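User: I'm putting together a small comparison set for a docking exercise, and I want a reference complex before I start. The sequence is below, and the ligand is guanosine-5'-diphosphate. Could you produce the 3D structure with the ligand included, as structure tokens?
Assistant: Of course. I'll restate your input first, then give the structure tokens for the complex.
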Amino acid sequence: MSEVQPSFRIKRKAALSPAEYVEGILSGNRTVLSRAITLVESQRAEHQAIAEEVVSACIRHSGKSIRIGITGVPGVGKSTFIEAFGLSLIEAGRRVAVLAIDPTSQKSKGSILGDKTRMEKLATHEHAFIRPSPSSGSLGGIAPKTREAMLLCEAAGYNAILVETVGVGQSEIAVHSMTDFFLLLMLAGAGDELQGIKRGIMEMADLIAINKADGANRDKARLAQQEYQHALHFFPPHPNGWRPRTLTCSALTGEGIVEIREVIFEFEKKMSKNGWIERQRTEQASYWLRQALEHELLSRFYASEQVKAKLPELDAAVRKGEISPLRAAKALLKLLPQ
Ligand code: GDP
């Protein structure tokens, strides 16, 4: 036992106080930033307590960035695109943090950003920070953590935040609700249905980029771009005055990447000037308060011993039609301490 104790003690000593985390983050220390995000993602109450303190202290140093949501179905080229686009942002003098929300990663063992081989240059660049999606829990559990990780990255000096997600529905709404600009990556000739892209997701897009516009695919991509541009005319105008754009690009050759960057910079300039980014972020903060409340209430409900004991019985009664679902729900809610 005495042999393991010294290393244990060293490890314990390395545990940082909230103030040390904050200091490390504000000085741009990536290791400390990484460890702080691990605390944010942790399920353990003592970790969450420290994380809350750290995030609260960092919040007033956050916000000085453009927050970009990126989505598209698996295979559209998101990882390849983020590598090229991230490097192009760095070329323009930005510091880039890449985060992800992938509620499916539990099943597919962290597919999204898990495999960094397509982002090798970006991953090792001193001005980039890449963090895969938290791999456990539901979207309701993951998304708020990614949002807090984003605030910590901003406090650490990253001024372009990319939040990636897969094109599978709800997770887009979460990403859209924490970013300023929403970029939808598409392929030519795959058909909207095939790409699983719902009208609602297209409606959220500030820019649709048709990727893989290279080689024999170039003309098809241009055609698709025109079609999408046409389709976008039928959507209601955005209240901020921005007209969604369409572009083609090749994440592989780098063609069109700078144009995408410049469209986003134009958006950032206009929407900072007219105050939209700030107003939108205020609305988003309020939205996340409500999300957090719902998530917290639900977690407490299902964690309650009384609920756990009574739920199967009432569930069975509801299934048999002996009691209405609403009545059963009210009976269960009464079991919670008021
Ligand atoms: P993700 O699943 O959306 O992250 O897509 P990946 O970045 O993993 O890319 C899927 C495949 O498409 C890989 O084989 C890439 O090399 C390829 N790919 C990505 N972007 C392009 C592109 O612009 N042109 C071509 N020709 N292939 C690409």
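The beta strands are 66-71, 96-101, 128-130, 160-165, 181-186, 207-210, 245-248. The first strand starts at residue 66 and ends at 71.
User: Thanks, that's exactly what I needed.
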